[in-house]
Amino acid sequence: MTTRENRTHEKTLKAIAKRSFCTLATSSPAQRPHVAGVLYQAVGTTLYVSTERGSRKARNIAANPHVAVCIPIRRLPVGTPSSVQFQGRAEILPVDHPELVRLAGAGRLKAVTSHGELELPDGCFLRITPMRRLTTYGVGMSLVRLLRDPLNAAGTVELAA
């Protein structure tokens, strides 16, 4: 990995960890797409999302675990935002799942457990694991370069196997 690729890799992972909002795309059994804005907590490259079992996103994931995620990354109050996108696999976890209990107990899920999410009667969590490649737009490049050359702002980050 070159120095520039390594910097982009680090900036991408840092941007994911620093944010807590993304759009989550799922597909129904009838192949109807659904996109929802959700709050997430990143633990490494895995995202955790609180929802209810009866929600459209949970029902869609129960039928088809393949999802897509887009994380907007605003660096200035105006102008083109950057972003990280990826395809991944989602799993539905009950609120008492041992991994969730451990992470919540260690304070690593505050963004998605600090509003009573663990007490929702129909609550569950989505564990979203990205595939090997993240696609970026404007990440790892200066704002000046992004504004001057937006057609060449796309990039990719390969995750370790």
Summarize the structure.
The chain has 5 helices and 8 strands, in the order αββββαββααβαβ. By secondary structure, the chain is of the alpha+beta class.
Please report the number of helical segments. 5
Q: Hey, roughly how much beta strand do the residues contain?
A: 35-45%
Termini gap: 15 Å
Portion of residues within helices: 25-40%
Would you report the number of β strands?
A: 8
Principal-axes shape call: globular
Mean pLDDT: 92
Largest sheet features:
8 strands, antiparallel
Can you write the helix and strand succession as a string? HEEEEHEEHHEHE
Low-confidence stretches: none
- State Rg: 17 Å
Secondary structure class reads: alpha+beta
Key phrases:
single chain, 161 residues, alpha+beta, eight-stranded antiparallel β-sheet, 5 helices, 40% strand
What features would you describe in this structure?
By secondary structure, the protein is an alpha+beta fold. The chain is 26% helix and 40% strand. It contains five helices and eight strands. Strands 1, 2, 3, 4, 5, 6, 7 and 8 form an eight-stranded antiparallel sheet that branches. Strand 1 and strand 2 form a beta hairpin. The longest helix has 16 residues. The two termini are 15 Å apart.
SSE map:
Blueprint: H1 3-18, E1 21-27, E2 33-39, E3 41-43, E4 46-52, H2 56-63, E5 66-73, E6 82-94, H3 98-105, H4 110-113, E7 123-137, H5 143-148, E8 154-158
Antiparallel strand pairs: 1-2, 1-5, 3-4, 4-7, 5-6, 6-7, 7-8
